[in-house]
Design a protein that fits this description.
Length: about 90
Amino acid sequence: MERFKIVERETKTKAYSKEGLGAGQKLDPQEKEKEECNQWITESIQELRFQIDKFEADIETLSASLKKKKSDKDVSFSMNPNLNPISIV
């Protein structure tokens, strides 16, 4: 009977009364845990996206440096034909 009284009181509470406005701040334990999990997941996703951006920047930097090294080798081979590894003696 007490449960019914509590449920009835909560359902009849007006939304903009002091009790109604304060009731929105009350969260049952399951809702609170769900909200904490959602927040943790959101933060984890943001951190992973940041890491992805960082790794992509590192990849671009490394690929640019490899291209530069390859172009430097090509220039050195074209300047000195004796260093050409394909030449047959």
